């Protein structure tokens, strides 16, 4: 029995060492896998951007251009009519200013004649009218300058919009 007991004892010892080895392996695996839920969330990929096919992109761009092109054309037509109206107004104001300048020069000539022939009383009236007309002429000049500035600004804006439209049309054509 001693050999059997020794053999059994060696089997039990071998089994115990196998169990210790297995327990050690389980502990190592546990420490290696314990962080697995966190690693799975860390390593999980998230799609932040959707990829769109080129055909979808081109169709969206063409539909957007088709939607915007009439509006841009309408706006450009409105700007052109407004610019034409401003140009007509500017011409009429220039003509009016020239007319006022002519009247002022005739009034000042008349005032000079009156002061030469009629004495001081009529000269005072001529100067008062000339002063009033001078103020009006100065106001008209200022208004003309404002209008010419506005026309210039609108022409620049129209030019910028036309360039932007050409760019977008050229971009669409590519």
From TrEMBL:
Keyword annotations: Centromere, Chromosome, Cytoplasm, Cytoskeleton, Kinetochore, Nucleus
Keyword Nucleotide-binding among record annotations: no
Domain of life: Eukaryota
GO BP: attachment of spindle microtubules to kinetochore
Compartments reported by the entry: Chromosome, Centromere, Kinetochore; Cytoplasm, Cytoskeleton, Spindle; Nucleus
GO cellular component annotations of the record: DASH complex; spindle microtubule
Family annotation (InterPro entries): DASH_Spc19
Annotated family: Belongs to the DASH complex SPC19 family.
Protein name: DASH complex subunit SPC19
Organism: Myriangium duriaei CBS 260.36
Highest classification ranks of the organism: Eukaryota, Fungi, Dikarya, Ascomycota, Pezizomycotina
């Amino acid at each position: 029995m001693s050999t059997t007991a020794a053999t059994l004892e060696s089997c039990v010892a071998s089994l115990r060492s196998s169990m210790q080895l297995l327990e050690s392996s389980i502990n190592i695996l546990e420490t290696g896998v314990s962080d697995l839920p966190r690693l799975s969330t860390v390593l999980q990929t998230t799609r932040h951007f959707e990829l769109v096919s080129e055909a979808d992109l081109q169709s969206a761009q063409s539909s957007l251009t088709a939607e915007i092109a009439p509006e841009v054309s309408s706006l450009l037509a409105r700007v052109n009519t407004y610019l034409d109206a401003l140009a007509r107004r500017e011409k009429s104001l220039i003509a009016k200013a020239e007319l006022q300048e002519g009247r002022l020069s005739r009034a000042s000539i008349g005032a000079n004649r009156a002061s030469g022939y009629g004495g001081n009383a009529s000269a005072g009236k001529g100067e008062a009218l000339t002063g009033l007309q001078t103020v009006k002429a100065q106001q008209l000049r200022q208004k003309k300058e404002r209008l010419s500035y506005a026309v210039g600004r609108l022409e620049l804006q129209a030019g910028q919009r036309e360039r932007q439209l050409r760019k977008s049309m050229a971009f669409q054509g590519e």
